[in-house]
Design brief:
Helix content is 65%, strand content 0%. By secondary structure, the chain is an all-alpha fold. The protein is flat and about 55 Å long.
């Protein structure tokens, strides 16, 4: 998603040239940026746990707890879209713990 946001002006230009800009009618850059920001810790943890020359098994529960904390809903600063990501991610993380 980061790459899409980064090249969005070029994508828009190409779609306009081909009279296909309507394909971006549902696109919302603000929501995309919120998703990127929210998902960044997941990306960071994934990269950290993929280390090839360093043992990482001991980090799994620690990083899982970090991600669960990241997914806590901020009731004082209630942004509907942001909280939707939080609820969804808690569901996904909780379903992987069995």
């Amino acid at each position: 998603m980061e790459s899409v946001v980064a090249v969005l002006p070029e994508i828009i230009k190409l779609l306009e040239e081909n009279k296909e800009k309507h394909k971006l009618d549902g696109w919302n850059t603000e929501i995309a940026n919120q998703m990127i920001e929210f998902l960044k810790p997941f990306k960071d943890v994934s990269l950290e746990l993929q280390a090839k020359k360093t043992p990482t098994l001991h980090l799994v529960l620690i990083r899982q707890a970090d991600l669960m904390k990241h997914c806590e809903v901020d009731t004082e600063n209630d942004h509907t879209v942001s909280n939707t990501y939080h609820y969804f991610s808690i569901f996904i993380l909780a379903s992987t713990i069995k």
